[in-house]
Fold this protein.
Amino acid sequence: STPSSEDLIILSTNLDNTLDTEEVTFQTVTPYPNPFNNKLSIAGLQHSMVATIYDLTGKVAATSNVGPGNSELFLENLVSSMYILNLSYGDTSKIYTLVKN
């Protein structure tokens, strides 16, 4: 016998269940220590990224390429203050607030 409409079960799925690129890229990234003295390390990098550090006036204080094998920034030239770290990977980026002792 052929199934009637009461016997049919409609199955649907959402195939767009991928995590947001930014979430995947940055979920394991942690700048440390914070506050830092002269050296800032960035743990959890899975890709090469551009690290840009801004002072509170918005001026670029330092910039460097970082990645899984090179995740240390030497920032002895920065004065004790608060800074903004922008890590960018392609067209995604994430901001971290840092303090230098």
